[in-house]
Design goal:
- By secondary structure, the protein is an alpha/beta fold.
- The protein has one domain: TIM Barrel (Alpha-Beta Barrel), CATH 3.20.20.70.
- 45% of the residues lie in helices and 15% in strands.
- The protein is built from 11 helices and 8 strands.
- The protein has an 8-stranded parallel barrel, surrounded by 5 helices.
- Helix 4 links the parallel strand 4 and strand 5.
- The radius of gyration is 17 Å and the shape is globular.
- It is an enzyme of class 4 (lyase).
- Homodimer.
Amino acid sequence: MTRTSSFKPTSARDRLMMGLDVPTVQQAEALVKATEGAVGVYKIGMELQFAGGLELARDLAASGHRIFLDVKLHDIDNTILRAVKNVARMGVTFMTLHAYPKTMRAAVQALREDGNTDLCLLGVTVLTSMDEADLIAAGYKGPIADLVQARAADAREAGMGGIVCAATEVGSLKTILGDELVSVTPGIRPSGHAAGDQKRVMTPGDAIRAGSDYLVVGRPLNQATDPRATADAIVAEIAAAL
């Protein structure tokens, strides 16, 4: 089942996903108000989810915003199937699961059973905060690039809408992803911004030139003195790179 054509970005602004990585709904609402119309998608991750962010996701989706629910699910098949059905009813546009084959197949099955074509399932390959040493410490062998490619292939085979990976790897995945799956790349740092805990990073322009469809920008936006101006600058860099 192919669902991904409608999830391809159509403008430079569409490609910018802002991470609402703040501890309270009030702070998140303030950031949305400050940047409304300046970004394409708002991402709600775990920190905010545990502070009322799920209701905020429903409310923002109902008001017409494109929402990326970054839940990174991974569980037994039945739990995944039921959870994904509930997420799909929230009206969000994107959600994440860890890119394990059984997990992804169960998620895709949930959408098939409900006939849902409005939710883009994203398989998280390898977190951008990890490097080769972290991978080895977690019990994996081989370069990160090999594992990312394997998980991208599994995502396509499962019928997922796309993957999450570092922009440093996206160029090597185009033959695997084809024209159907979208690539979402966190670890985006405009020039002059600290990498923080991210280890595989790129600037917005370099990420677009590498082939990224969507760029996730968190701290450089939500910690900015003027988030709207920062978003506008990132969108301009994206547009110049297209």
